[in-house]
Design brief:
The protein has 478 residues and is of the alpha/beta class. The chain has two domains: 142 residues, Purple acid phosphatase-like, N-terminal (Immunoglobulin-like, Sandwich); 314 residues, Purple Acid Phosphatase, chain A, domain 2 (4-Layer Sandwich), CATH 3.60.21. The protein is built from eight helices and 21 strands. The strands form four sheets. It has a seven-stranded mixed beta sheet with strand order 12-13-15-18-20-19-21. It has a six-stranded mixed beta sheet with strand order 5-2-1-11-10-9. Strands 3, 4, 6, 7 and 8 form a five-stranded antiparallel beta sheet that branches. Helix 2 runs parallel beside helix 4. It is globular. The N terminus is likely disordered.
Length: 478
Amino acid sequence: MRKSNEHHRREFLAGAGASLLWAIAGRPTHGATDVAAVAVPKFLADPFSLGVASGDPAPDGVVLWTRLAPDPLGGGGMPPQNVPVGWEVATDDQMRRVVKRGTTSARHALAHSVHVEVRGLEPSRWYWYRFKVGSNLSPIGRTRTAPARGTRLDKLTFAFASCQHYEDGFYTAHRHMAREDLDLVVFLGDYIYEGGIRTGRTRQHNSPEIVTLGDYRNRYALYKSDPDLREAHAAFPWIVTWDDHEVDNNYAGAIDQDASSPEDFLRRRAAAYQAYYEHMPLRVSSLPRGPNMRLYRRLTYGSLAEFSVLDSRQYRADQPCGDGHKERCPAAFDSRATLLGTSQEHWLLNGLDQSRARWNVLAQQVMMSQTIEVAGDAKKYGMDNWNGYVAARNRLLSFIRERRPSNPVVLTGDIHSNWVCDVKADFDAPKSETIATEFVGTSISSGGNGNTSPAEADRRLAANSHVKFFNAQRGYVR
């Protein structure tokens, strides 16, 4: 290590130590929460094995994340006490020009995860950050604040991605993403998969199907053991939401697809939601309470873009026509069959109505555009997406047609393929007005090699005139 770096390292250690003394004395530093006066354990392995991340950028700050886990696949390997963790933010990648620092607590109850909500930063600026526990320093991460509200921008460069089944392939897409020139990353769900070990795969899960809190924690640790995923997290701030596999395939509200009782499934959902929070750069406003967790939220980028980040799992009604791809039944048109839940739907519509952004982005999980699979005389639809909740979709599309929010764009994951669709005011009238655009992004790894036959692409495009592009290559959308 060069002298200048060693000098700065000593400066950081001294500063963090001073912050700890203040916290013990009962005067918390900026960002300090629940700091317990306990001895810092001595680590025989890297406590920052899961890397660092940042998320939910605001004009004046961002969330910084890490989790102490010297034994990441064995429950974490931490003692059953809270542990003080120092953090600092700098304007240079060598961490010489520190502008914020403090001490917070890695809480035993939250798997020794850390969520620091840094405030007082400048808008539209790159920052670098790291954590310290004892004599151990984390990797350095990079993040960027959002522009001030109302700022006129020429562009916003971001990528969106989803569906990274660990067993289906490596995360080379994340490695490539980390080298892009981006302002942020939006992740649309299926960060982990809950299933057990499958043979004949590229790599394997670390346990049978996960159900308990400990199971979910170890599964997140397995996924975050991938160096390419950690690199992508450390390179940019992320905006995250979930889909189904963070809990169980195609679950709907309090109902799973395995005929569990609602009580049993809600216990599982509570474990899954807590583990999700513990491993994502989320604000304390998303801290789960039992099986409930507020994940939908809104983020703005100057006057250019507003992101409405949706949750289409927690509040939805059970699939009205059942699961799978099939002909629609009358229940799909039942107005009580909600995908977002009443409160979130009202929140979304009110936000779109009040937005003054040039682009209104709906970051969500499942396909909104109508897509038909022709099988003889039958027309089949995906029952787990908006095609199975027609009345709910019609309410949203009617609102957009009538109230005219500026440039609505829908971002979607879930189905491991790329689509670009004109969102029609009436999908059954092909010449009806186009009122939005939907971009469906492929998977990071889920679904295998991503080959697309020309015949398959032609068939899908012919059956759906509003679909303008389709392929199944793996990767992400930029």
